[in-house]
Amino acid sequence: MNERGGSRQHKKRCWAGLDWGGSGHAVSVVDDRRRVLASFAVGASLEDLESLSQRLRACGEVAGVAVEATRHPVVGHLLSAGFTVYAVNPKQSKNWRGCASVSASKSDARDGLVLAVELAGRHESLRPLRREDPAVAELAGLCEKVRDLVDERTALVQRLKATLGQYYPGALCFFSDWTSPVAWRFVKRFPRPKTLAQARKQTLCAFLKSNRVGLRPVWLERIEARGDAARWPLPADSAALEAVALATVAQLLALQPHIDKMDRLIAEQSKKVPQTTLMKSLPGAGKRLAPALAAMAALTTTGKKQNLEALRCVSGVAPVEDKSGKRQRVRARRRCNRHWRDVLYLFAHCSINCCDWARAFYDMHREQGDNHAGALRKLADKWLKIIHHMVEANEPYSDVRHVQSLRKHASWFPPEPGGKPGGKLH
Question: What pLDDT is recorded for position 10?
Answer without folding.
Answer: 55
